[in-house]
Amino acid sequence: MSYAEAKKKYAKIGVDTEKAIEQLGKIAISMHCWQGDDVGGFESVGGASNGIQTTGNYPGKATNPEQLMADVDFAMSLIPGKHRLNLHACYGIHKDKVVDRDKIGVEQFKPWVAWAKERGIGLDFNPTFFSHANVKDGLTLSSPDKAIREFWIKHGIQCLKIAEYMAKECGSPCAINFWCPDGFKDDPSDRLGPRQRMAESLDRIFKTKYNKKLVIPTFESKLFGIGVESYTVNSHEFVMGYAQSRKILALLDMGHFHLTENVADKISSFLMFFGKVAFHISRPVRWDSDHVIRQNDDLRGAAQEIVKMGPENFIIALDFFDASINRIAAWVLGMRNMQKELLKAMLQPNDCLKKLQDEGKFTAQLVYQEELKNYPMDEVWAEFCKREKVPAGEDWFKAVEKYEKDVLLKR
Ligand code: RNT
Ligand code: ZN
C-alpha cells in the first residue's frame, strides 16, 4: 500500500494523516545521555553504583565526552525529528581534577552547551545523587548525618544553577529531575524521619533563587530498588504530596510501580492536579530493569494518553540503559518506538471513540479499538521518515552495524 492509499483509508474514518505527520514532527523527546555508557559518567571509571546498576558488557561503550557526543550525534541522525539531550551531573567535563558534586558549576557544562547550541537542540538536566562516596548507608538528602545532607543540598543548588545556564544558553526551558536512591534494605524503625529530612533538604534546595520560567524542577518517585527493597523515602505518595504542596512537577517513571499497575491510567489525574506531566519512559521486566522500550501495551497506553491530553503538556524523557546490546541501537530503537506509538495514537479517531464510550456503546468501542490496530500506520511512518530524511525501516540498523565495526569496536 502506498502512502496516498493509506491517507485515503484514514480519511474515511476522519483521520488526517498530514496533520499527524506535522504534529509528530513537533514532539521533541528528551534522549537520555546515560544509555551511551551504562550510566557511567566522566568522574570515575567505576561505573554506576550506590542505588543504580546496569547489567551487560557489550563492547564499544563511550568512555569520554568526545565519544559520547559522537555517539549521540550518530544516533540522532537515525531518528526522525529534532530532539533534546538529557544530561546527568556526573557527565560534567572536568579539566585536570574532578570538581566534586557540591562544587560543580557551569564551567563543567560549557562544552555540552556549545555542542547543543551548534545543533540547535535543548538540554535537560539531573543532579546525580548516586555513584558517590557520600551516599551514606544508602541515604543522601535524607541522611541523619547533617554533613552528608549539606553536601547533597549544595549539589542540588549547584545543579539548579547549571540548569538555568543551559536554558538561557540554549534558549529553551530546562527540565531538571530530582531522583534520589534513598531507602532501606530491611524494615526501618522510623519511616517518618527520613521523609521529614528529605522534605527539609529539598526545601533548602528550592529556596535558592532560580528562574521559574527557564528551570522546571521535576521530582521522581520510586517503589523499590535492588538493595532497598523494604522502604523508599521518595515513594509515590511522598512525591505526590511534596510536589503538589511545593508547586513543582511530579515525575512518573514507568518502571517505578507494581507491575500490575497501569501507569497510563495515572496520567489524567496527574494532568488535572499538576497541569503538566513529566515522564521517564522505561520498560520494567519483572522489576525496574530499565529495558529498552518496545511497542507494547504499556507504551501504547502512555502514548495514547499523551496524545489525547495534548503532547505540549508533557515532558517526555526516556530512561533505560541496557549494557548488553549495542547502545546506539538501544537509543535509536527506543526513540523510534516512542515516536511510532505517538503516531499510532494520533492516527486514531479519538473523538469518535470517546463518543462511543459516552454513549455506552462498549461493543462498538472494543471492536473499533481492535480493528484500528491493523490500520496502515507503517505507510504514514515511512512518509514521515522520508520527509525527515532518515530510513523508515530496519535499514537504520545496517548503519549502526557499520558504525559498530568502524568506530565502536576500535575503542
Ligand atoms: C532510577 C531512576 C532515575 C535514573 C536516572 C539515571 O531508578 O529511574 O531516573 O534512571 O536518573
Ligand atoms: Zn527514571
Structure description:
The protein is an alpha/beta fold. The chain has a single domain (21-348), classed as TIM Barrel (Alpha-Beta Barrel). The protein is built from 14 helices and 12 strands. The strands form 4 sheets. It has a 5-stranded parallel β-sheet with strand order 4-6-8-9-12. A 3-stranded parallel β-sheet has the order 1-2-3. Helix 3 links the parallel strand 1 and strand 2 (84-88). It is globular, with a radius of gyration of 22 Å. The N and C termini lie far apart (43 Å). 48% of the residues are buried. Bound molecules: L-rhamnitol and zinc ion. Zinc ion binds at residues 179, 220, 253, 280, 319.
Q: Could you say which small molecules are bound to this protein? A: L-rhamnitol, zinc ion
Low-pLDDT stretches = none
CATH class: Alpha Beta
What is the CATH third-level topology name? Answer: TIM Barrel
Residues in helices, as a percent range: 40-55%
Average pLDDT works out at: 97
Rg over CA atoms: 22 Å
Globally, the shape reads globular
Strand order of the largest sheet: 4-6-8-9-12
Total strands: 12
Structural domain tally = 1
* CATH architectural type: Alpha-Beta Barrel
Ends distance = 43 Å
Largest sheet: 5 strands, parallel
Order of helices and strands: HHEHEHEHEEHEEHEHEEEHEHHHHH
* SSE class: alpha/beta
